[in-house]
Amino acid sequence: MLHAVATAAVAVGRGALHWASLGPGDAGRVGFAAFGERSFIRQPYSDIVGAPGIAIGADTLIGSGVNLAAVPQDEWSPGDEPLLRIGSRVWAAPGLHVVAHRRVEIGDDVWIGPGVYITDADHDRSDPDVPIGHRMAPARPVRIGAGSWLGTGVVVLSGVTIGERVTVGANSVVCDDLPDGSVAVGAPARVVREASALPSAADDDQRRAGGDQ
Predict the structure, then answer these.
(1) Rounded CA gap, 136 and 196, in Å?
(2) I need a labelling partner for 26 at 20 to 30 A (CA). Which of 42, 60, 109, 184 fits?
(3) In the sheet that 54-56 helps form, which strands lie side by side, from edge to edge?
(4) pLDDT of 87-114, one tens digit each?
(5) Is residue 20's pLDDT more than 80?
(6) Per the confidence metrics, is the pTM higher than 0.90?
(7) What is the pLDDT confidence band of residue 150, given thresholds at 50, 70 and 90?
(8) Catalytic site residue from 3, 18, 97, 123
């Protein structure tokens, strides 16, 4: 009797975990281009649009309330290069919002704070007689390099390339490219520290060795 109760409890627990997240087993049902092993999107997610244009790597965790949209601006078919590619070992806190019309790439080992917005879209402001929201400019690809960190509330706009191992401070608005290893803050985001000013792994080792003497 106790064994039967325990078995039933485990089954309920497994069911609850399944419904609490989207995982690799759901990839076919939802229609993702790719969904890596041990990756999960926590439920409830807000919206997933254009799943055939979205590829997610392995060991990636995306928090609840996420909006992922892959809506092609130009001719595109399932099986073409994904419009939105999220790498492996990415960690995204709740409230991530990504809109891809042409190409958004988030590299491996990127960490993303709560409420971050990333888009390759923009609006055409050339005709003052037309509401800005009614006119779309051509989308421009966005790339976020491996090992970078985007703080809470960061906004990444169309055409931006963020290099590898870049730190972007909370509530910053990234309008221009950021070089590898830099630290940027503000709206618009400005580099406040270059890679050359950051301690290297060799420097860290040297400091540790000095402390041991």
Answers:
(1) 39
(2) 109
(3) 34-35, 54-56, 84-86, 104-106, 142-144, 161-162
(4) 999 999 999 999 999 999 999 999 999 9
(5) no
(6) no
(7) very high
(8) 123
Active site residue 123: yes
Mean per-residue pLDDT over the chain, rounded: 86
Please give the CATH number for the structural domain made up of 2-24+32-197: 2.160.10.10
Ramachandran angles phi, psi of 99, nearest 5°: -120, 120
173: β partners? 155
pLDDT tens per residue, range 187-213: 999 999 987 655 554 555 565 566 555
Domain ranges in the chain are: 2-24+32-197
